[in-house]
């Protein structure tokens, strides 16, 4: 049975190469899309410019530590769940990590089974509920993941693969501006030869189909990207 056309994307910030590789491999085995980095400044850049569903954040990083990374992410109003992973096990360290913006705090060494249980728990708390939801809804839109069937009011629309990824993204992040780069990354991965007007063509087709059926608007935000919002018609 078909479900989501993309998998949860996780930013893994860890400078211990063997541990980083082990976690990344396990994430891949569990059908997560992992992007890795090794220092705090890069983590801040990726977290504030990319679209991630969860961040695994080591505390002891070269340069900028994980506490500062978490605080900076939260100051940018980015509410992506953060799980701190660290050898610092004193209660004061845990409190400081959570107060810095982490949603959970896991002490090394840890069992991978516990790490993935905590990942699943955090993803269940996000709007899309990747592990559980068969249907995503916004206004009069109802989208069934198993068969890629979109219902707008009483009208049923069957979507192609790219349209399905787009509507799923917009429904998982309603009211949030998704940048062109974020959308292109989810549609085509790291392919570098995709033009902006290819993305715009897919969005225009989806927008027209929603408009004809009386659905919400996909609004272009000049210089930023696109946002799903209540219809102004």
UniProtKB/TrEMBL annotation:
According to its UniProt entry, this protein's organism is Sulfobacillus benefaciens
Extract the InterPro entries matched here: CheY-like_superfamily, OmpR/PhoB-type_DNA-bd, Sig_transdc_resp-reg_C-effctor, Sig_transdc_resp-reg_receiver, WalR-like, WH-like_DNA-bd_sf
Q: Name one Pfam family in it.
A: Response_reg
Q: Which PANTHER family match?
A: PHOSPHATE REGULON TRANSCRIPTIONAL REGULATORY PROTEIN PHOB, REGULATOR OF RPOS
Q: What does this protein do?
A: May play the central regulatory role in sporulation. It may be an element of the effector pathway responsible for the activation of sporulation genes in response to nutritional stress. Spo0A may act in concert with spo0H (a sigma factor) to control the expression of some genes that are critical to the sporulation process.
PTM-bearing positions, type 4-aspartylphosphate: 58
This chain's protein is named: Stage 0 sporulation protein A homolog
Question: GO cellular-component terms in the record?
Answer: cytosol; protein-DNA complex
MF GO annotations: phosphorelay response regulator activity; transcription cis-regulatory region binding
């Amino acid at each position: 049975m078909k479900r989501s056309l993309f998998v949860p994307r996780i930013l893994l910030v860890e400078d211990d190469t063997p541990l980083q590789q082990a976690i990344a491999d396990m994430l891949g085995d569990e059908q997560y899309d992992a992007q890795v980095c090794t220092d705090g400044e890069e983590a801040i850049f990726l977290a504030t410019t990319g679209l991630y569903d969860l961040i695994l954040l080591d505390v002891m990083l070269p340069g900028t530590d994980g506490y500062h990374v978490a605080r900076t992410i939260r100051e940018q109003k980015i509410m992506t769940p953060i799980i701190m992973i660290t050898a610092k096990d004193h209660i004061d360290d845990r409190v400081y990590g959570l107060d810095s913006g982490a949603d959970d705090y896991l002490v090394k060494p840890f069992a991978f089974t516990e790490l993935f249980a905590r990942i699943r728990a955090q993803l269940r708390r996000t709007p899309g509920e990747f592990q559980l939801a068969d249907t995503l809804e916004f206004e009069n839109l109802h989208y069934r993941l198993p068969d890629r069937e979109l219902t707008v009011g009483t009208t049923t629309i069957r979507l192609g693969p790219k349209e399905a990824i787009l509507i799923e993204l917009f429904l998982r992040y309603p009211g949030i501006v998704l940048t062109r780069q974020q959308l292109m990354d989810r549609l085509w991965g790291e392919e570098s030869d995709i033009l902006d007007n290819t993305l715009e063509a897919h969005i225009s087709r989806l927008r027209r189909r929603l408009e004809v059926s009386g659905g919400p608007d996909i609004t272009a935000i000049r210089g930023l990207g696109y946002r799903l919002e209540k219809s102004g018609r």
